[in-house]
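Notebook p. 47: complex prediction with pyridoxal-5'-phosphate.
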Amino acid sequence: MNDLYDRHRRVLPDWLALYYDDPLEITHGEGRHVWDADGNRYLDFFGGILTTMTAHALPELTKAVSEQAGRIIHSSTLYLNRPMVELAERIAHVSAIPDARVFFTTSGTEANDTALLLATAYRRSNTILAMRNSYHGRSFSAVGITGNRGWSPTSLSPLQTLYVHGGVRTRGPYADLDDAAFIAACVDDLRDLLGHTRQPAALIAEPIQGVGGFTSPPDGLYAAFREVLREHGILWIADEVQTGWGRTGEHFWGWQAHGHSGPPDIVTFAKGIGNGTSIGGVIARSEIMNCLDANSISTFGGTQLTMVAGLANLAYLLEHDLQGNARRVGGLLIERLRVVAAQVPGVREVRGRGLMIGIELVKPGTDDADPQRAAAVLEAAREGGLLIGKGGGHNTSALRVAPPLSLTVAEAEEGAAILEHALRSTS
Ligand SMILES: Cc1ncc(COP(=O)(O)O)c(C=O)c1O
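Predicted complex, structure tokens below:
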């Protein structure tokens, strides 16, 4: 056992999972590559859980952060903060939410906590609708809306949560229906549920479920839900922590695949916007954001150091059309992986869009999850020089491919070849 692993195990919680039999210490990165402590180079197709959104060591971001660190790192929200105001303005602008207000937090969990606080206060209800197979964070309230057993350490909750069908297209009772019938069945289920419950505050949903293994409903489901929610005044919260900022290629926000009934009432974000610096946040119409009748602060939320990083990162993303790159290069990558999947036993589905691609593994000839194979593919990919992730409500049997959005065609080809070898060598 390596020394750092030994020390990690002695001092950090047992439930803090590490990838790989021989865990990796990543010491530096550049572009779409990272290096470990032994000097080995890897193509990074997981970006520290979809967080290195543009690139490792992005020069524009490094410069902004170093210069800011030499001026002031933090002053708190008690004082005017120019980078925070500027980033809020830009996020409000790209959000498509009318009269948008932005509140910065330090994580996705805290962003979702804030969204729950707003929705429950605004609606005077602590009932929340969430999706099966969902993940929204690790806090006491966020685990209360987590529809994934593997990430629910307690059933205690300040909320009453009701789980709705629809987040997983190819499993569950409606899996065999066509898209239109699937949506209709989920809407019927929602209507039925609403007939049996107190008026919920909100529905919270990830447009593509991240931890759940990059699963999603057919396009349009959340727009259909929206119609029903509107009849009852129930808010729609889109958790864009994984899907925001163009990752899905076709859209800037994941909710736009369901967008014909307008933007959500509340959007939460984190991960990619800071490219590794800790920025999370909530966007909501002013009447919702302003509904709290007491003070509320997040001491580290909006701190100057992270805000200049967010500004530099967002500017780079927009100026280089990384959403378009995610669509083009992600499109090539998913097609390439689908061809491989058709030739290798035990690949149930290759799904996703843009640079958010899930590969679900099952025991060949069955529909049973194969978490051992997923772990073996992860190891084999690492040996080949590629880092990927895992996920899925079905015993972590989905591989997750989510490189930085600046991925080149050559890197996509190289990563696909390594993944192909890893899939073949473990079958
Ligand atoms: C969709 C989604 N929401 C919320 C969170 C929680 O974010 P954080 O880990 O920054 O608290 C995550 C983290 O993986 C996530 O994937």
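Notes: Residues 179 and 218 are 6 Å apart (CA to CA). Residues 322-343 form the longest helix (22 residues).
Next step: compare against the earlier run before touching the bench.
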